[in-house]
Amino acid sequence: MRSRFPGRALRRAVAVASTVALGASLAACSGGGSSKDGGSQGRDTVTVAFRTPNWILPISAPGYTQGENAIFGQALYRSLYQYKLDGTAQYNIDPQRSMAEPPVVSDGGKTLTITLKDNTWSDGKPVTTRDIQFWYDLVTANKDKWASYRAGGFPDNIAQWSVKDDKTFSITTTKAYNTAWFVDNQLNRITPLPQHAWDRDSATAAVGGQASTPEGARKVFDFLTAAAKDLKTYDSNELWKVNSGPWKLERYVPNGEVTLAAQPKYSGVDKPKLAKVVLRPFTSDDAEFNVLRAGGIDYGYVPAANVSQEEHLKSKGYTISPWYGWSITYLQLNFNNPKTGVLFDQPYLRQAMQMLIDQPTISKVIWSGTAAPTCGPVPAKPGTGGTDAAGCAYSFDPAKAKELLESHGWKVTPDGQTTCQAPGTGPNQCGEGVAAGTPLAFTVTSQTGFTATTKMFAEIKSQMAKLGIQLTIKEVPDSVAVTPACKPTEAACSWDMSFFGSQGSWYYPAFASGERLFATGAPVNLGSYSNPEADRLIETTQFSGDESALKAYNDFLAKDLPVLWMPNPVFQLSAYRSGLQGVEPQDPMNFMYFQDWSWK
């Protein structure tokens, strides 16, 4: 999900909450008006409402895949390829921001040859294939610790990795993949790493070829991971001072403000136009909005609960712009929960619960029109909202939901507790493994800090209660972290349902396939959903260039309900000072390119 949730992880990454990390004291004292020549801190600086990133190593790690980490990482360390979805570029590769030319495909689609552009590290050393090889050695030897790894995917699907010279390398895959899928969803993971500075297994070790062997690569990876977990040294550790991105880290306060400074030796063509970017976290929507109204930040967001004040912000010199995402939003179900997983296994129950979520009304009323229904796993084209499916498979229909439950052996007790009265696997029974007297009672683990999310679940809870389905809503700061993929025997598997979609649950890479989300054993399949037909359809999208493959996958999962589809909000309703240029278009894959920003 670059959730910002697990992907961009989810990078995009699972869009998880954005600005929720600092104490209220910061929000209270973060006032200040606009300066004469620029923003709240002058013409060379921009302040941005932004959750404090907590992962700096440009290799994704489980539990650290939130979107703010992906944006932070890209500011410091450029990926081999960057992408855009405007339909103008081959394989969606952004020719300006990418560090390599588009791949040359041969051998019936199995071999991709890639040539690096001329780029340097911040210490003046050239970026070469040695840095690509270093990344490959680390992720190959440590794939079990890499959040982007899925069995059978990269690097398991590489038959041969060959470095030809300092500028050129080739990848030969085990099978002939759909090139668009492989370029967009596999090559997007490659990030050159400074081998000359990082290839060591301790702070005092000489830099050399330690990572060239699996054992050495594991030691180097452990050293780098330990450093990445030491947040208090982010702005002092020499490791992080060698980078390839347009920005360098000037100041980092754990759970607090982060200051990025323009990298004077940046070799990309998209050079920063500002001197500094200050990333400022807030405890909640209300805290952020109070400071925004006071003119204390240059780029923030308007919470759904405050959309009515849009005109007031415009009168204060802000431009208001919805940030549409290449994303979907959903409520995760834990199929492996030892108590309630057997209930989620029943398709009719998932259907009934979906019919009790009034997506259109919630989108319009609670999200103030800044959300649209999610109907399936394939998102709509950026900027249109909703999904590409022609309407949702299950519309809001409490009467039909009640009929489904009663026809499967449940005694529906409105505003009470519905229980199973007919255990068994027959046509009019509750289903395999559901015992007599089993209640329909679940706990939803959700995010704190989002007023619209709180109101949304109050509405859903009310609708469920009308059919005797009892929901307990538990809000936590990071719902991803406390609802992991798990085995039924593990203590951590006690969660029922999880929501982390206040800004979109999952932001896709350029090709919107589902191997990381809904395939059996997928890295971001937190609910452990598994269906052989879904696996087959997902695999087909990876090998077939026919657009019908993606549609077939979407249509099946739209009906099978691996999750409950939820209203998909815009990532945020951005508010930025009208004198701030280069903010738009806002990237639908949820990256922020601060180097494009400048003051008039």
TrEMBL record:
The signal sequence is 1-27
Its localization reads:
Cell envelope
Transmembrane ranges, per UniProt, are none
Q: Could you tell me which InterPro entries the record lists for this protein?
A: Peptide/Ni-bd, SBP_5, SBP_5_dom
Outline the extent of the Solute-binding protein family domain: 96-510
Q: Which domain of life is it from?
A: Bacteria
This protein's UniProt keywords: Signal, Transport
The record's comment on protein family reads: Belongs to the bacterial solute-binding protein 5 family.
Please identify the protein, giving its name as recorded: Peptide ABC transporter substrate-binding protein
Question: Which species is listed as the source?
Answer: Micromonospora sonneratiae
